[in-house]
């Protein structure tokens, strides 16, 4: 399994719980190959994976909606955008910059362009950039993105990415953000707390990735303590919550009662000082 294949899985997760994710466009990415993987994932990892990703999407959609309600001239910068579709749910005038590895960006740009052309999707102002977070330098990434930030403030979204990166690359990205952003700008980020690594469900996740890693692509399997976010120079943690807590609000009918039984990600909102 390649990292970009997880983008199809995550979009399918959102489509399975549309009333929670509030993403009516996720289903556009659904395909038979991804659908065939889900029963095994639910059985071998966790039956709650789809609902948790829908909850994560809902949280960030509400944060983005609130941010751009107060800052209607701002820009969404989506690092590791995958097949997320926030830009089509947000108001039409919001400018979006999508950043990911080249295979995802090329495919997404082509599909989105066709869907806008045939009326499946509403028109939006979107810039696409292929970036390899590991190999591109801080200077290269900033030079590529900065000229396209014509409207401020910015909201940087880093969703479903840090698990696959190492510490060096993670630090590089937050350095990039600090160079791109100004006071009042925000970051939304997702990561696992270190204690999650000791749970059975997390180890089932690692086993699944390793067993299905037919390309020998390296996954960092990174966990990050909340202290990391609180120590980032120039930023303040405005909000910190986990999916277990959010489930009680967005999906009480799921009866998610044991935190250690799910792949419980922590979600953060940071503000540039």
UniProtKB/TrEMBL annotation:
The keyword rRNA-binding belongs to this UniProt entry's keyword annotation: no
Keyword Transferase set for record: yes
Enzyme Commission number: 2.1.1.-
GO biological process, one term: methylation
GO molecular function: methyltransferase activity
Entries under InterPro entries matching the protein: Ppm1/Ppm2/Tcmp (IPR007213), SAM-dependent_MTases_sf (IPR029063)
Keywords linked to the UniProt accession: Methyltransferase, Transferase
Pfam families: LCM (PF04072)
PANTHER family from the UniProt entry: S-ADENOSYL-L-METHIONINE-DEPENDENT METHYLTRANSFERASE YKTD-RELATED (PTHR43619), S-ADENOSYL-L-METHIONINE-DEPENDENT METHYLTRANSFERASES SUPERFAMILY PROTEIN (PTHR43619:SF2)
UniProt name for this protein: Class I SAM-dependent methyltransferase
Organism of origin: Aquimarina hainanensis
């Amino acid at each position: 399994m390649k990292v970009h294949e997880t983008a199809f899985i995550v979009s399918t997760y959102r489509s399975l719980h549309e009333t929670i994710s509030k993403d009516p466009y996720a289903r556009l990415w659904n395909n038979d190959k991804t659908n065939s993987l889900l029963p095994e994932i639910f059985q071998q990892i966790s039956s709650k994976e789809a609902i948790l990703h829908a909850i994560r999407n809902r949280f960030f959609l509400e944060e983005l909606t609130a941010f751009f309600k107060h800052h209607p001239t701002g820009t969404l910068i989506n690092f590791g955008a995958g097949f997320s579709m926030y830009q089509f749910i947000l108001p039409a005038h919001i400018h979006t910059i999508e950043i990911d590895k080249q295979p995802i960006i090329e495919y997404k740009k082509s599909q989105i362009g066709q869907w806008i052309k045939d009326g499946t999707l509403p028109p939006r102002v979107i810039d696409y950039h292929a970036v390899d977070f590991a190999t591109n330098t801080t200077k290269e990434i900033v030079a590529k993105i900065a000229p396209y930030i014509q409207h401020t403030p910015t909201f940087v979204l880093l969703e479903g990415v840090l698990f696959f990166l190492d510490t060096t690359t993670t630090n590089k990205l937050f350095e990039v953000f600090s160079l791109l952003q100004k006071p009042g700008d925000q970051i939304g980020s997702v990561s696992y707390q270190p204690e999650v690594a000791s749970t059975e469900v997390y180890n089932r996740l690692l086993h699944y990735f390793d067993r299905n890693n037919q390309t020998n692509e390296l996954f960092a399997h990174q966990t990050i303590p909340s202290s990391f976010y609180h120590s980032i120079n120039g930023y303040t943690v405005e909000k910190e919550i986990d999916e277990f807590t959010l489930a009680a609000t967005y999906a009480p009918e799921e009866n998610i009662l044991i935190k250690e039984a799910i792949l419980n990600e922590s979600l953060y909102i940071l503000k540039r000082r």
